[in-house]
Amino acid sequence: MSALPPAVRVVNLVRRYGGRTVLNDLNLRIERGEFVVLLGESGCGKTTLLRALAGLDHVQGGRIEAPRRPAMVFQEHRLLPWDPLWRNVALGLQAADARARAEAALAEVGLGGRLDDWPRNLSGGQAQRVALARALVQKPELLLLDEPFAALDALTRIRMHALVKQLVARHRPAVLLVTHDVDEAIALADRILVMREGAIAAGYFVSDARDPLALRQSLLAELGVTTFA
Amino acid sequence: MGSALTSTLPASAASEPEAVVPPQHAANPRMVALLSWLAPVLLLLVWEAAAQLGRIPPHLLPAPSKVARTAFHLAVHGSLLHDLGISLLRAAAGFAIGGSIGFALGTAVGFSRIAEALIDRSVQMIRAIPFLALLPLVIVWLGVGEAEKIFLVALGVTFPIYINTTLGIRQVDPKLLELGRVQGLGTAAMIRRIVLPGALPSVLTGVRYALATAWLALVVAETIGADAGIGFLAMDAREFLRTDVIFLTILIYALIGVSADWVARRLERRLLAWHPNFASPGGR
Ligand SMILES: Nc1ncnc2c1ncn2[C@@H]1O[C@H](COP(=O)(O)OP(=O)(O)OP(=O)(O)O)[C@@H](O)[C@H]1O
Ligand SMILES: [Mg+2]
Questions:
Q1: Going by CA atoms, what residue is nearest to atom 3 of ligand 1?
Q2: Is A42 touching ligand 1 by the criterion CB < 6 Å?
Q3: For A211, how many CA atoms within 13 A lie in the half-sphere containing its CB?
Q4: Atom of ligand 1 nearest to the CA of A40
Q5: N or C: at which end does chain B have fewer Cβ atoms within 10 angstroms?
Q6: Would the CB atoms of A82 and B198 count as touching at under 8 Å?
Q7: How far is CA A88 from the centre of its chain?
Q8: What is the CATH number of the domain that holds B204?
Q9: Strand partners, A37
Q10: How far apart are the CA of A179 and the centre of ligand 1, in A?
Protein backbone atom coordinates (compact mmCIF):
# COMPACT_ATOMS: atom_id res chain seq x y z
CA MET A 1 0.00 0.00 0.00
CA SER A 2 2.71 2.41 1.01
CA ALA A 3 6.42 2.52 0.29
CA LEU A 4 7.23 3.30 3.91
CA PRO A 5 7.54 0.41 6.34
CA PRO A 6 4.30 -0.12 8.22
CA ALA A 7 3.80 1.14 11.77
CA VAL A 8 3.03 -2.35 12.99
CA ARG A 9 3.80 -5.74 11.58
CA VAL A 10 2.78 -8.84 13.51
CA VAL A 11 3.65 -12.25 12.12
CA ASN A 12 2.29 -15.56 13.44
CA LEU A 13 1.87 -14.26 16.97
CA VAL A 14 1.14 -16.91 19.61
CA ARG A 15 0.15 -16.15 23.17
CA ARG A 16 -0.86 -18.80 25.68
CA TYR A 17 -2.22 -18.56 29.20
CA GLY A 18 -1.34 -21.84 30.85
CA GLY A 19 -2.47 -24.43 28.34
CA ARG A 20 -4.99 -22.17 26.57
CA THR A 21 -3.97 -20.56 23.32
CA VAL A 22 -5.44 -17.07 23.19
CA LEU A 23 -3.59 -15.66 20.18
CA ASN A 24 -3.18 -18.30 17.53
CA ASP A 25 -0.88 -17.43 14.61
CA LEU A 26 -2.19 -13.91 14.45
CA ASN A 27 -1.03 -11.69 11.57
CA LEU A 28 -1.56 -7.97 11.46
CA ARG A 29 -0.23 -4.99 9.58
CA ILE A 30 -1.01 -1.37 10.35
CA GLU A 31 0.21 1.41 8.06
CA ARG A 32 1.64 4.66 9.37
CA GLY A 33 -1.12 7.02 10.35
CA GLU A 34 -3.78 4.40 9.77
CA PHE A 35 -6.76 4.18 12.14
CA VAL A 36 -7.63 0.54 12.72
CA VAL A 37 -10.53 -0.56 14.90
CA LEU A 38 -10.61 -4.05 16.32
CA LEU A 39 -13.93 -5.78 16.98
CA GLY A 40 -14.52 -9.23 18.42
CA GLU A 41 -16.59 -10.93 21.00
CA SER A 42 -15.65 -10.81 24.64
CA GLY A 43 -12.69 -13.01 25.55
CA CYS A 44 -11.41 -13.47 21.99
CA GLY A 45 -8.04 -11.92 22.84
CA LYS A 46 -8.25 -8.21 21.88
CA THR A 47 -6.74 -6.94 25.11
CA THR A 48 -4.13 -9.68 24.94
CA LEU A 49 -3.09 -8.44 21.50
CA LEU A 50 -2.85 -4.82 22.64
CA ARG A 51 -0.79 -5.79 25.67
CA ALA A 52 1.58 -7.77 23.49
CA LEU A 53 1.98 -4.76 21.17
CA ALA A 54 2.66 -2.52 24.15
CA GLY A 55 5.35 -4.91 25.33
CA LEU A 56 3.54 -5.56 28.61
CA ASP A 57 3.43 -9.34 28.21
CA HIS A 58 5.74 -12.00 26.91
CA VAL A 59 4.58 -13.97 23.91
CA GLN A 60 5.18 -17.62 23.12
CA GLY A 61 5.78 -17.31 19.42
CA GLY A 62 5.83 -15.13 16.33
CA ARG A 63 7.28 -11.71 15.69
CA ILE A 64 6.19 -8.19 16.54
CA GLU A 65 7.55 -5.12 14.82
CA ALA A 66 6.14 -2.05 16.48
CA PRO A 67 7.40 1.33 17.69
CA ARG A 68 9.51 0.96 20.80
CA ARG A 69 7.14 2.87 23.02
CA PRO A 70 3.54 2.94 21.90
CA ALA A 71 1.15 5.05 23.97
CA MET A 72 -1.81 3.32 25.55
CA VAL A 73 -5.17 4.33 26.95
CA PHE A 74 -6.97 1.78 29.08
CA GLN A 75 -10.64 1.28 29.77
CA GLU A 76 -10.07 2.93 33.16
CA HIS A 77 -8.36 6.30 33.14
CA ARG A 78 -5.53 5.17 35.46
CA LEU A 79 -4.71 8.68 36.59
CA LEU A 80 -2.39 8.91 39.59
CA PRO A 81 -4.68 10.26 42.30
CA TRP A 82 -1.78 11.97 44.11
CA ASP A 83 -0.65 14.04 41.13
CA PRO A 84 -2.39 17.13 39.79
CA LEU A 85 -3.55 16.86 36.19
CA TRP A 86 -0.49 18.39 34.58
CA ARG A 87 1.85 15.99 36.42
CA ASN A 88 -0.34 13.12 35.30
CA VAL A 89 -0.07 14.22 31.70
CA ALA A 90 3.66 14.77 32.00
CA LEU A 91 4.28 11.34 33.52
CA GLY A 92 7.28 9.84 31.75
CA LEU A 93 7.99 13.00 29.77
CA GLN A 94 11.73 13.68 29.80
CA ALA A 95 11.70 17.33 28.87
CA ALA A 96 12.60 20.57 30.58
CA ASP A 97 9.36 22.11 29.34
CA ALA A 98 7.24 19.20 30.54
CA ARG A 99 4.72 21.46 32.25
CA ALA A 100 4.25 23.64 29.19
CA ARG A 101 3.77 20.57 27.00
CA ALA A 102 1.32 19.08 29.46
CA GLU A 103 -0.55 22.36 29.48
CA ALA A 104 -0.79 22.37 25.71
CA ALA A 105 -1.98 18.76 25.68
CA LEU A 106 -4.62 19.50 28.32
CA ALA A 107 -5.77 22.50 26.34
CA GLU A 108 -6.16 20.24 23.30
CA VAL A 109 -8.61 18.04 25.17
CA GLY A 110 -10.48 21.04 26.50
CA LEU A 111 -9.09 21.03 30.05
CA GLY A 112 -6.58 23.84 29.69
CA GLY A 113 -7.74 25.66 32.81
CA ARG A 114 -7.37 22.74 35.17
CA LEU A 115 -3.65 22.12 35.31
CA ASP A 116 -3.43 21.97 39.08
CA ASP A 117 -6.72 20.23 39.76
CA TRP A 118 -6.85 16.75 41.33
CA PRO A 119 -8.06 13.76 39.30
CA ARG A 120 -10.81 13.07 41.85
CA ASN A 121 -12.55 16.27 40.82
CA LEU A 122 -13.08 15.03 37.25
CA SER A 123 -16.05 13.36 35.63
CA GLY A 124 -15.52 10.06 33.83
CA GLY A 125 -15.33 11.73 30.43
CA GLN A 126 -12.93 14.40 31.62
CA ALA A 127 -10.66 11.80 33.23
CA GLN A 128 -10.57 9.84 29.99
CA ARG A 129 -9.68 13.03 28.12
CA VAL A 130 -6.74 13.53 30.46
CA ALA A 131 -5.66 9.94 29.77
CA LEU A 132 -5.84 10.75 26.07
CA ALA A 133 -3.73 13.87 26.58
CA ARG A 134 -1.20 11.82 28.55
CA ALA A 135 -0.93 9.38 25.66
CA LEU A 136 -0.64 12.02 22.93
CA VAL A 137 1.84 14.25 24.71
CA GLN A 138 4.38 11.45 24.17
CA LYS A 139 4.06 12.00 20.41
CA PRO A 140 3.60 8.27 19.84
CA GLU A 141 3.90 6.63 16.44
CA LEU A 142 1.39 4.07 17.65
CA LEU A 143 -1.60 4.73 19.87
CA LEU A 144 -3.30 1.75 21.50
CA LEU A 145 -6.79 2.31 22.87
CA ASP A 146 -8.51 -0.51 24.76
CA GLU A 147 -12.22 0.28 25.00
CA PRO A 148 -11.42 3.81 26.16
CA PHE A 149 -15.00 5.02 26.01
CA ALA A 150 -16.80 1.90 27.22
CA ALA A 151 -17.56 3.39 30.61
CA LEU A 152 -18.94 6.67 29.26
CA ASP A 153 -22.53 7.62 28.53
CA ALA A 154 -23.71 7.69 24.93
CA LEU A 155 -23.58 11.45 24.47
CA THR A 156 -20.16 11.85 26.04
CA ARG A 157 -18.97 9.02 23.85
CA ILE A 158 -20.08 10.79 20.67
CA ARG A 159 -18.23 13.92 21.79
CA MET A 160 -15.15 11.81 22.47
CA HIS A 161 -15.33 10.39 18.93
CA ALA A 162 -15.14 13.88 17.49
CA LEU A 163 -12.27 14.77 19.80
CA VAL A 164 -10.29 11.63 18.98
CA LYS A 165 -10.78 12.17 15.24
CA GLN A 166 -9.55 15.71 15.53
CA LEU A 167 -6.52 14.79 17.66
CA VAL A 168 -5.54 11.86 15.46
CA ALA A 169 -5.85 14.04 12.37
CA ARG A 170 -3.45 16.52 13.97
CA HIS A 171 -0.86 14.13 15.43
CA ARG A 172 -1.19 11.36 12.85
CA PRO A 173 -0.20 8.32 14.93
CA ALA A 174 -1.18 4.87 13.78
CA VAL A 175 -4.12 3.85 15.95
CA LEU A 176 -5.39 0.49 17.09
CA LEU A 177 -8.64 0.91 18.98
CA VAL A 178 -10.62 -1.90 20.56
CA THR A 179 -14.35 -1.51 20.97
CA HIS A 180 -17.58 -3.47 21.17
CA ASP A 181 -19.49 -0.68 19.51
CA VAL A 182 -19.95 -1.26 15.78
CA ASP A 183 -21.10 2.32 15.21
CA GLU A 184 -18.04 3.64 17.00
CA ALA A 185 -15.92 1.49 14.70
CA ILE A 186 -17.58 2.88 11.58
CA ALA A 187 -17.38 6.43 12.87
CA LEU A 188 -13.65 6.31 13.58
CA ALA A 189 -11.91 3.67 11.51
CA ASP A 190 -10.06 3.65 8.23
CA ARG A 191 -10.15 -0.11 8.50
CA ILE A 192 -12.15 -2.44 10.72
CA LEU A 193 -10.83 -5.83 11.78
CA VAL A 194 -12.88 -8.61 13.30
CA MET A 195 -11.07 -10.99 15.57
CA ARG A 196 -12.16 -14.56 16.16
CA GLU A 197 -10.51 -17.54 17.84
CA GLY A 198 -7.27 -15.72 18.40
CA ALA A 199 -6.72 -14.46 14.87
CA ILE A 200 -7.95 -11.75 12.52
CA ALA A 201 -10.98 -13.24 10.76
CA ALA A 202 -12.09 -10.36 8.52
CA GLY A 203 -11.14 -6.86 7.47
CA TYR A 204 -13.14 -4.00 5.96
CA PHE A 205 -11.97 -0.68 4.58
CA VAL A 206 -14.60 1.79 5.66
CA SER A 207 -13.99 3.99 2.61
CA ASP A 208 -14.79 0.99 0.37
CA ALA A 209 -18.22 0.58 1.85
CA ARG A 210 -20.76 2.28 -0.39
CA ASP A 211 -23.48 1.82 2.21
CA PRO A 212 -22.60 2.24 5.92
CA LEU A 213 -25.76 0.34 6.83
CA ALA A 214 -24.67 -2.66 4.79
CA LEU A 215 -21.24 -2.48 6.41
CA ARG A 216 -22.92 -2.42 9.76
CA GLN A 217 -24.93 -5.52 8.87
CA SER A 218 -21.86 -7.40 7.69
CA LEU A 219 -19.94 -6.50 10.84
CA LEU A 220 -22.79 -7.61 13.06
CA ALA A 221 -23.03 -10.83 11.10
CA GLU A 222 -19.27 -11.37 11.58
CA LEU A 223 -19.81 -10.91 15.29
CA GLY A 224 -22.59 -13.48 15.28
CA VAL A 225 -25.44 -11.04 15.72
CA THR A 226 -28.30 -11.67 13.34
CA THR A 227 -30.51 -8.70 12.66
CA PHE A 228 -33.80 -8.51 10.84
CA ALA A 229 -33.39 -5.86 8.22
CA MET B 1 -20.11 28.62 79.67
CA GLY B 2 -22.55 27.38 82.29
CA SER B 3 -25.15 30.02 81.38
CA ALA B 4 -24.78 29.31 77.68
CA LEU B 5 -25.57 25.68 78.34
CA THR B 6 -28.63 26.29 80.47
CA SER B 7 -30.01 28.75 77.93
CA THR B 8 -29.82 26.19 75.15
CA LEU B 9 -31.43 23.46 77.17
CA PRO B 10 -35.04 24.70 77.04
CA ALA B 11 -34.85 24.97 73.26
CA SER B 12 -33.94 21.34 72.84
CA ALA B 13 -36.54 20.36 75.39
CA ALA B 14 -39.18 22.30 73.45
CA SER B 15 -38.42 20.40 70.27
CA GLU B 16 -39.04 17.11 72.04
CA PRO B 17 -42.74 16.65 71.11
CA GLU B 18 -42.00 17.20 67.41
CA ALA B 19 -39.88 14.07 67.23
CA VAL B 20 -42.12 12.75 64.46
CA VAL B 21 -39.76 14.44 61.96
CA PRO B 22 -36.34 12.98 62.78
CA PRO B 23 -34.20 15.32 60.60
CA GLN B 24 -35.62 18.34 62.45
CA HIS B 25 -34.40 16.69 65.61
CA ALA B 26 -30.81 16.38 64.45
CA ALA B 27 -28.86 18.30 67.06
CA ASN B 28 -26.93 21.45 66.32
CA PRO B 29 -23.30 20.28 66.00
CA ARG B 30 -21.91 23.25 67.90
CA MET B 31 -24.22 22.56 70.79
CA VAL B 32 -23.20 18.90 70.77
CA ALA B 33 -19.54 19.91 70.83
CA LEU B 34 -20.23 22.20 73.75
CA LEU B 35 -22.21 19.50 75.49
CA SER B 36 -19.35 17.04 75.25
CA TRP B 37 -17.29 19.36 77.45
CA LEU B 38 -19.96 19.42 80.14
CA ALA B 39 -18.88 16.31 82.07
CA PRO B 40 -15.12 17.04 82.19
CA VAL B 41 -15.65 20.67 83.18
CA LEU B 42 -18.17 19.68 85.83
CA LEU B 43 -15.80 17.07 87.19
CA LEU B 44 -13.00 19.62 87.39
CA LEU B 45 -15.25 22.12 89.18
CA VAL B 46 -16.44 19.53 91.71
CA TRP B 47 -12.89 18.38 92.27
CA GLU B 48 -11.66 21.94 92.82
CA ALA B 49 -14.54 22.72 95.16
CA ALA B 50 -14.03 19.55 97.18
CA ALA B 51 -10.31 20.27 97.48
CA GLN B 52 -10.90 23.88 98.50
CA LEU B 53 -13.38 22.72 101.15
CA GLY B 54 -10.77 20.33 102.50
CA ARG B 55 -12.83 17.23 101.67
CA ILE B 56 -9.93 15.49 99.89
CA PRO B 57 -6.54 14.91 101.48
CA PRO B 58 -4.17 17.07 99.35
CA HIS B 59 -1.42 14.44 99.39
CA LEU B 60 -3.77 12.09 97.53
CA LEU B 61 -5.51 14.50 95.20
CA PRO B 62 -4.29 18.10 94.94
CA ALA B 63 -6.62 20.83 93.77
CA PRO B 64 -6.44 21.56 90.03
CA SER B 65 -5.55 25.16 90.84
CA LYS B 66 -2.64 23.91 92.93
CA VAL B 67 -1.38 21.83 90.01
CA ALA B 68 -1.60 24.91 87.79
CA ARG B 69 0.37 26.99 90.30
CA THR B 70 2.99 24.25 90.57
CA ALA B 71 3.29 24.16 86.79
CA PHE B 72 3.90 27.89 86.68
CA HIS B 73 6.37 27.77 89.53
CA LEU B 74 8.36 24.87 88.11
CA ALA B 75 8.42 26.41 84.65
CA VAL B 76 9.74 29.73 85.93
CA HIS B 77 11.98 28.70 88.84
CA GLY B 78 12.43 24.97 88.42
CA SER B 79 13.70 22.63 85.77
CA LEU B 80 10.37 21.85 84.09
CA LEU B 81 11.30 23.19 80.66
CA HIS B 82 14.71 21.57 80.81
CA ASP B 83 13.16 18.22 81.72
CA LEU B 84 10.54 18.58 79.03
CA GLY B 85 13.26 19.26 76.49
CA ILE B 86 15.18 16.17 77.57
CA SER B 87 12.11 13.97 77.26
CA LEU B 88 11.24 15.35 73.83
CA LEU B 89 14.80 14.84 72.67
CA ARG B 90 14.74 11.21 73.75
CA ALA B 91 11.44 10.66 71.99
CA ALA B 92 12.66 12.36 68.82
CA ALA B 93 15.92 10.42 68.72
CA GLY B 94 14.19 7.10 69.33
CA PHE B 95 11.55 7.93 66.76
CA ALA B 96 14.09 8.89 64.14
CA ILE B 97 16.13 5.74 64.65
CA GLY B 98 13.21 3.31 64.92
CA GLY B 99 11.34 5.05 62.12
CA SER B 100 14.29 4.83 59.74
CA ILE B 101 14.89 1.17 60.50
CA GLY B 102 11.20 0.32 60.19
CA PHE B 103 10.86 2.25 56.95
CA ALA B 104 14.00 0.77 55.41
CA LEU B 105 13.07 -2.80 56.33
CA GLY B 106 9.45 -2.26 55.31
CA THR B 107 10.48 -0.86 51.94
CA ALA B 108 12.83 -3.76 51.26
CA VAL B 109 10.22 -6.34 52.23
CA GLY B 110 7.49 -4.53 50.32
CA PHE B 111 9.53 -4.61 47.14
CA SER B 112 11.26 -7.91 47.19
CA ARG B 113 10.06 -11.42 47.91
CA ILE B 114 13.65 -12.36 48.69
CA ALA B 115 13.93 -9.61 51.30
CA GLU B 116 10.59 -10.77 52.68
CA ALA B 117 11.86 -14.34 53.00
CA LEU B 118 15.02 -13.11 54.73
CA ILE B 119 13.53 -10.52 57.04
CA ASP B 120 9.83 -10.86 57.62
CA ARG B 121 9.70 -13.97 59.77
CA SER B 122 12.33 -12.69 62.18
CA VAL B 123 10.63 -9.33 62.50
CA GLN B 124 7.26 -10.95 63.09
CA MET B 125 8.78 -13.17 65.79
CA ILE B 126 10.32 -10.23 67.62
CA ARG B 127 7.07 -8.35 67.20
CA ALA B 128 5.22 -11.10 69.06
CA ILE B 129 7.05 -9.99 72.22
CA PRO B 130 5.39 -7.04 73.95
CA PHE B 131 8.34 -4.72 73.55
CA LEU B 132 8.11 -3.45 77.13
CA ALA B 133 8.82 -6.99 78.32
CA LEU B 134 12.33 -6.53 76.94
CA LEU B 135 13.02 -3.70 79.35
CA PRO B 136 14.95 -5.76 81.98
CA LEU B 137 17.11 -7.19 79.22
CA VAL B 138 17.72 -3.77 77.73
CA ILE B 139 18.78 -2.47 81.13
CA VAL B 140 21.24 -5.35 81.53
CA TRP B 141 22.64 -4.63 78.08
CA LEU B 142 22.76 -0.88 78.11
CA GLY B 143 22.38 0.08 81.77
CA VAL B 144 20.00 2.79 82.92
CA GLY B 145 20.84 5.74 80.75
CA GLU B 146 20.09 7.60 77.56
CA ALA B 147 20.94 4.64 75.32
CA GLU B 148 18.47 2.39 77.08
CA LYS B 149 15.64 4.91 76.78
CA ILE B 150 16.28 5.71 73.15
CA PHE B 151 16.61 2.02 72.37
CA LEU B 152 13.25 1.26 73.94
CA VAL B 153 11.52 4.06 72.06
CA ALA B 154 13.13 2.98 68.82
CA LEU B 155 12.01 -0.58 69.43
CA GLY B 156 8.41 0.51 69.95
CA VAL B 157 8.48 2.68 66.82
CA THR B 158 10.10 0.21 64.44
CA PHE B 159 7.25 -2.29 64.20
CA PRO B 160 4.26 -0.09 63.40
CA ILE B 161 6.30 1.74 60.76
CA TYR B 162 7.62 -1.52 59.35
CA ILE B 163 4.23 -3.17 59.09
CA ASN B 164 2.45 -0.21 57.58
CA THR B 165 5.22 0.51 55.09
CA THR B 166 5.17 -3.09 53.87
CA LEU B 167 1.41 -3.06 53.70
CA GLY B 168 1.33 0.26 51.87
CA ILE B 169 3.76 -0.85 49.20
CA ARG B 170 1.89 -4.13 48.71
CA GLN B 171 -1.36 -2.26 48.29
CA VAL B 172 -0.16 -0.04 45.46
CA ASP B 173 -2.52 -0.60 42.54
CA PRO B 174 -0.83 -2.95 40.02
CA LYS B 175 -2.73 -1.19 37.25
CA LEU B 176 -0.89 2.02 38.08
CA LEU B 177 2.44 0.18 38.05
CA GLU B 178 1.53 -1.11 34.61
CA LEU B 179 0.71 2.42 33.53
CA GLY B 180 4.16 3.46 34.72
CA ARG B 181 5.69 0.85 32.45
CA VAL B 182 3.59 2.02 29.50
CA GLN B 183 4.77 5.58 30.12
CA GLY B 184 8.35 4.34 30.11
CA LEU B 185 9.27 5.03 33.74
CA GLY B 186 12.53 3.57 35.00
CA THR B 187 12.78 1.82 38.35
CA ALA B 188 13.72 4.96 40.28
CA ALA B 189 10.94 7.02 38.71
CA MET B 190 8.50 4.18 39.30
CA ILE B 191 9.32 4.19 43.02
CA ARG B 192 9.27 7.96 43.32
CA ARG B 193 6.18 8.69 41.25
CA ILE B 194 3.99 5.64 41.94
CA VAL B 195 5.11 3.29 44.72
CA LEU B 196 5.94 5.72 47.48
CA PRO B 197 2.99 8.09 46.96
CA GLY B 198 0.73 5.06 46.83
CA ALA B 199 2.16 3.72 50.07
CA LEU B 200 2.13 7.07 51.84
CA PRO B 201 -1.36 6.90 53.43
CA SER B 202 -0.47 3.60 55.05
CA VAL B 203 2.97 4.84 56.15
CA LEU B 204 1.40 7.87 57.81
CA THR B 205 -1.06 5.63 59.64
CA GLY B 206 2.02 3.79 60.88
CA VAL B 207 3.54 7.08 62.02
CA ARG B 208 0.51 7.83 64.11
CA TYR B 209 0.57 4.42 65.77
CA ALA B 210 4.31 4.77 66.28
CA LEU B 211 3.90 8.12 68.02
CA ALA B 212 1.62 6.48 70.55
CA THR B 213 3.99 3.59 71.23
CA ALA B 214 7.00 5.92 71.34
CA TRP B 215 5.32 7.88 74.05
CA LEU B 216 4.41 4.80 76.03
CA ALA B 217 7.98 3.52 75.78
CA LEU B 218 9.34 6.83 76.98
CA VAL B 219 7.04 6.97 80.00
CA VAL B 220 8.06 3.47 81.06
CA ALA B 221 11.77 4.02 80.44
CA GLU B 222 11.82 7.30 82.33
CA THR B 223 9.84 5.87 85.22
CA ILE B 224 12.31 3.01 85.70
CA GLY B 225 15.18 5.34 86.23
CA ALA B 226 16.35 8.71 85.04
CA ASP B 227 18.17 11.74 86.34
CA ALA B 228 16.36 14.18 84.12
CA GLY B 229 13.17 14.32 82.09
CA ILE B 230 9.48 14.36 82.87
CA GLY B 231 9.58 10.83 84.27
CA PHE B 232 12.42 11.81 86.59
CA LEU B 233 10.34 14.74 87.78
CA ALA B 234 7.51 12.36 88.61
CA MET B 235 9.68 9.84 90.44
CA ASP B 236 11.47 12.59 92.34
CA ALA B 237 8.12 14.03 93.37
CA ARG B 238 6.97 10.63 94.56
CA GLU B 239 9.80 10.55 97.09
CA PHE B 240 8.56 13.79 98.59
CA LEU B 241 4.86 12.95 98.23
CA ARG B 242 4.44 15.95 95.89
CA THR B 243 1.20 14.75 94.36
CA ASP B 244 0.76 18.08 92.59
CA VAL B 245 4.00 17.55 90.66
CA ILE B 246 3.03 13.97 89.84
CA PHE B 247 -0.29 15.21 88.47
CA LEU B 248 1.53 17.81 86.48
CA THR B 249 3.80 15.23 84.85
CA ILE B 250 0.83 13.04 83.98
CA LEU B 251 -0.84 16.05 82.44
CA ILE B 252 2.26 16.90 80.43
CA TYR B 253 2.54 13.36 79.11
CA ALA B 254 -1.08 13.56 78.04
CA LEU B 255 -0.67 16.97 76.40
CA ILE B 256 2.40 15.92 74.46
CA GLY B 257 0.68 12.76 73.30
CA VAL B 258 -2.27 14.79 72.07
CA SER B 259 -0.08 17.35 70.32
CA ALA B 260 1.98 14.65 68.64
CA ASP B 261 -1.22 13.15 67.27
CA TRP B 262 -2.35 16.59 66.17
CA VAL B 263 0.90 17.15 64.30
CA ALA B 264 0.56 13.74 62.64
CA ARG B 265 -2.98 14.59 61.54
CA ARG B 266 -1.85 17.91 60.11
CA LEU B 267 0.87 16.09 58.25
CA GLU B 268 -1.68 13.67 56.83
CA ARG B 269 -3.95 16.45 55.70
CA ARG B 270 -1.09 18.26 54.04
CA LEU B 271 0.59 15.30 52.34
CA LEU B 272 -2.65 13.55 51.42
CA ALA B 273 -4.53 16.55 50.07
CA TRP B 274 -5.23 14.48 46.95
CA HIS B 275 -6.91 11.75 48.99
CA PRO B 276 -10.71 11.92 49.18
CA ASN B 277 -10.60 10.98 52.88
CA PHE B 278 -8.41 13.94 53.74
CA ALA B 279 -9.75 16.45 51.26
CA SER B 280 -10.46 19.85 52.64
CA PRO B 281 -13.89 20.88 51.36
CA GLY B 282 -13.65 22.63 48.01
CA GLY B 283 -9.87 22.41 48.19
CA ARG B 284 -7.55 21.62 45.36
N1 LIG C 1 -3.87 -13.00 33.06
C2 LIG C 1 -4.58 -13.99 32.46
N3 LIG C 1 -4.46 -15.26 32.89
C4 LIG C 1 -5.14 -16.26 32.30
N5 LIG C 1 -5.99 -16.08 31.28
C6 LIG C 1 -6.16 -14.82 30.82
C7 LIG C 1 -5.47 -13.72 31.39
N8 LIG C 1 -5.83 -12.59 30.73
C9 LIG C 1 -6.71 -13.00 29.80
N10 LIG C 1 -6.91 -14.32 29.85
C11 LIG C 1 -7.77 -15.12 28.95
O12 LIG C 1 -7.43 -14.81 27.64
C13 LIG C 1 -8.60 -14.70 26.86
C14 LIG C 1 -8.59 -13.38 26.12
O15 LIG C 1 -8.65 -12.33 27.05
P16 LIG C 1 -8.70 -10.82 26.61
O17 LIG C 1 -8.70 -10.00 27.82
O18 LIG C 1 -7.64 -10.58 25.62
O19 LIG C 1 -10.11 -10.75 25.89
P20 LIG C 1 -10.81 -9.50 25.22
O21 LIG C 1 -11.01 -9.83 23.79
O22 LIG C 1 -10.07 -8.27 25.52
O23 LIG C 1 -12.21 -9.53 25.94
P24 LIG C 1 -13.13 -8.28 26.36
O25 LIG C 1 -13.81 -7.83 25.13
O26 LIG C 1 -14.09 -8.87 27.32
O27 LIG C 1 -12.26 -7.24 26.97
C28 LIG C 1 -9.79 -14.85 27.77
O29 LIG C 1 -10.33 -16.12 27.59
C30 LIG C 1 -9.21 -14.71 29.14
O31 LIG C 1 -9.86 -15.59 30.01
MG1 LIG D 1 -10.46 -6.54 26.73
A1: A17
A2: yes
A3: 4
A4: 21
A5: N
A6: yes
A7: 19
A8: 1.10.3720.10
A9: A177, A192
A10: 14
pTM as predicted: 0.80
Question: pLDDT tens digit string along B117-143?
Answer: 999 999 999 889 988 888 889 999 998
pLDDT in tens, B36-47: 899 999 999 999
ipTM metric: 0.90
Q: Which ligand is nearest to the CA of A39?
A: 1
Q: How many domains, chain B?
A: 1
B6 part of a folded domain? no
Q: How many CB pairs under 8 A join A and B?
A: 54
Please list every residue in chain B whose beta carbon sits closer than 8 Å to the beta carbon of residue A119: 274
Mutate to test the interface with B, among A69, A77, A87, A91 (most CBs of B within 10 A): A91
Is residue B236 a part of any domain in this protein? yes
**Which domain covers residue B167, as residue numbers?**
63-283
